[in-house]
Amino acid sequence: MQEKQYTEDEIDLKELFNTIWQKRLFIAIFTFVVTTCAGVYAYNKTPIYEVKSIIEIGFIDKQLLEEPSILEQKLNVIFSVDDKSINNDPKKGIISSIIQMKTVKNFIEVKTEAVSNEIAIAKSKEILDYAQKLYEPKIEQYKTLVNNDISNIENEINFLKNEKMKMLTDKVESSKANLEKYNQEINSLYKSNTNANDKISSMIVSVQMVNYQNLIENAQNVLKASSLEIEQILKDTIPKLDQKKEIAEFKISEQNLTNTRLVGDYITSEYPAKPKKVLIIVVAFVTGFVLSIFAVFFMQFVSSVRKG
C-alpha cells in the first residue's frame, strides 16, 4: 500500500511539473507583464526624498524647558502629523514622524518627506522654528531676571569703588591731617606748660592737652576703622561681588542656558527614499510568478471540471 501511495505522489508531482512546463510561456509572459507594469509604475512615480533631523530640547540651569514627551505631543498635534488629509502634499513637504529618541532623553527625531531635499529641509526648519519660538518668552524672562541681578551687582561694585572708597579715603586723609595737627598742638601746649609760672595756667594747659589726647585717640580710631574697612572692601567684599557677578553671567551663558536647537546637520540622501524601485520590481516579479502558477493550476482545474 505504501509503495502504491508513493507512486501516486510521484505521479502527481510529475503531472504538476509537466503542467507548469507546458504553460511556461504563459507563466513567463504573465510574470513579465506584471514586472513591467510595476517597473513602469516605480520609474514614473514622483521620487520622494526623506530628511532626518535631531532636535535637542533647550534647558535652563540643567532643567529641560519641557518634558520631551509633552513637546512630542504638542508638535504632532500642531503639525497634524497623523492627519493625512492635511499632511499629505509632498510638494509642500510631509512630516512623516516626530518621536522622542529612546537612547537620549532630551532628543527628538524629526522625519520629513518631499519631492526634493530642499523642500523637506524647509519643512524640518518650520518645526525647529516653532519649537524655538515656543520657549523664547521663558528664556527672555529668565535672562531679564539674571541681567537685573548683574546690573545690581555692578551698581554695588561701582558704589563701593567710586563713592564708598572715596569717602573712606577722605576719612583716612582727614584723620591723618587731624593727627598731625593735634600732635603739633600738644607739642605747643607742652612747651607752654613748661614755661608756665603759675598753677592755674599749668592746669589749663593740662586740661587742653587731655582734650587733644582724646581727639588724637578718636582720630586714630577713625583712621584704623577706615583703613580696615578699605582693606575689607578691596580684599573681601569686591572679590565676592565679582565672583557673584561671574556666577550670574554663567547662568545666561550657552553652557547653562540654551533654546531648543538642531543637533548636527540635516541628514539627506542623493537618492529618493520612495519609491523603492528595486524592491517594487523584485516583489512584482515574485508576485507575478506565483500568480501565474496559480492561474495555470486554476485554469487546469476549471478545464478538468468541464471535462468531468
Give the helices and strands, then pairings.
Layout: H1 2-22, H2 24-44, E1 49-56, E2 59-60, E3 63-64, H3 68-78, E4 94-100, E5 107-114, H4 117-195, H5 199-251, E6 257-258, E7 261-267, H6 277-307
Antiparallel strand pairs: 1-5, 1-7, 2-3, 2-6, 4-5
Short description:
The protein has about 300 residues and is of the alpha+beta class. The protein contains 6 helices and 7 strands.
Percent of residues in β-strands: 5-15%
Strand order of the largest sheet: 4-5-1-7
Secondary-structure element string: HHEEEHEEHHEEH
Number of helices: 6
Overall mean pLDDT: 87
Low-confidence stretches at least 5 residues in length (pLDDT < 50)? 1-9
What is the end-to-end distance?
27 Å
What coarse outline follows from CA principal-axis ratios? rod-shaped
Q: Rounded to an integer, what's the Rg over CA atoms?
A: 47 Å
The major sheet is characterized as: 4 strands, antiparallel
Helix content: over 70%
Keywords:
308 residues; alpha+beta; three-stranded antiparallel β-sheet; disordered N terminus
